[in-house]
Amino acid sequence: MGTxxxxxxxxxxxxxxxxxxxxxxxxxxxxxxxxxxxxxxxxDIAHRTQGADEExxxxxxxxxxxxxxxxxxxxxxxxxxxxxxxxxxxxxxEEIEIINEFLPEQMSDxxxxxxxxxxxxxxxxxxxxxxxxxxxxxxxxxxxRMDFGKASAIVKEKLT
Length: 160
Prior knowledge:
- The protein has about 160 residues and is an all-alpha fold.
- The protein has helices at about 5-25, 25-50, 60-80, 85-100, 110-125, 130-140, 150-160.
- The termini are far apart.
């Protein structure tokens, strides 16, 4: 089973989770899953208008979407905490937990650093000019499993 089966599985998993959340009257999960599915639908439409096949975006793109949603919520948590809005920050943290259920296990900081070293070595990157190439290789190899914000900081440190 290739990528298409995996894509279908993740989409099915999201849809099933929404049904379960609705039946259990979990409002936070329902709203979070609806946001994910709406964003996914937007990406599918954009994908089709670019002349791609009818299936929609692939699993890698779905994983990027989920990671992006987590990053947005982390940024919101910082803003809410600075503004003294603890209850809103807690809500965002709950949404992160829900989204994380659909991501593969995340790499540890040590694993990220080791992966960065490996990719820099394999690509023979030697200066900050090579950062884009290194990040592209990392995204290709570790989609959905790596915090690319952390990876970017490590790459920058190693190449400067």
